[in-house]
Amino acid sequence: MRISTPFSLAALGLLGALTNCAASSEKERSTTVVTRAQSVALTTPAAMASAPAAPADTLANAPAAAADAPTVPAVDSTGAARSAPDVRAGVLATEGASAGAPTAREISAERSREKKMTGAEYRQMLATADAALENNPKDAAALLQRAKAKSYLHEYPAAQLDYSAALRYQRNNPDAYYNRGVNHLMMKKYKAASADFAGALRYRPDDKESFFGRGVAKMQMLQYKPAVADFTHAIQIDSAYADAWEYRGISYASFDKMPEARRDLEHATDLNPNAAKSLRRYVGHDGKEPIKVAPMRAPRPTVPRH
């Protein structure tokens, strides 16, 4: 049984987890989607929480790494792949990030911090970046900060211009790729988002949120098997990544791998009780019953003509 339900809502949920671009108010950010604070934070995804977003790359033709990947290898009781491919799989080339670039762990913590900022703080970030760019219009760091501030304030087209400008002056910055990828997701440009997350992984191959963000972009393009591969990479990096377990389970369900879907969604629920919604929706009532297929009408008998 194939689940044909579109994943636009799922992607928005992902964005809430992988992106810092989710709606926010002066006092707190909106949580209209199922967010996983532990697993994603976009600045990177939160994403993207992705992601997520380092993503996005002006490289519209940058290769999406696991596009033709087969099914994911078996996993053990902890969810780690037994003979899983290296986490760099799917990345065409691994190059050095810019000097002094933070580690994946450090950038994940930074994304989490930025997700908690208020609208006033995002506007202050924008003003600070504008002031720096008046002195040096080619300041890649200031361009990136201004782009992120615009994304947080939902000015996605304007943010896109700044992300691309930042990458012109610093092409090996994984954070610019990641965040542009998240921005592309928000603009529903999924192919570009996938390419940008691939760009982020080229320079930071252990960024779980970039794998997660690329997986979400592939889900949106109905590329469920390649999405499974990306979520698996994210789980290899962080076996407690609840969002990755949940979205891999949803992806499995989309191409009839129901035992795998049940396993992943049950584990996601153990890590984050909010995932129980996906377990019920895609596997059945609390995972104890399969989804019932709607009965098909019997064809009407043909009345022979005399």
Automatic annotation (TrEMBL):
InterPro entries: TPR-like_helical_dom_sf, TPR_rpt, Ycf3. TPR repeats lie at residues 174-207, 242-275. Residues 107-116 have a biased composition (Basic and acidic residues). The keyword Repeat applies. Residues 93-116 are annotated as: Disordered. Keywords: Repeat, Signal, TPR repeat. The keyword ATP-binding does not apply. One of its GO terms (cellular component) is cell outer membrane. GO terms for biological process: receptor-mediated virion attachment to host cell. Residues 1-22 form the signal peptide. PANTHER family: TETRATRICOPEPTIDE REPEAT PROTEIN 6 (PTHR44858), UDP-N-ACETYLGLUCOSAMINE--PEPTIDE N-ACETYLGLUCOSAMINYLTRANSFERASE SPINDLY-RELATED (PTHR44858:SF1). This is Uncharacterized protein.
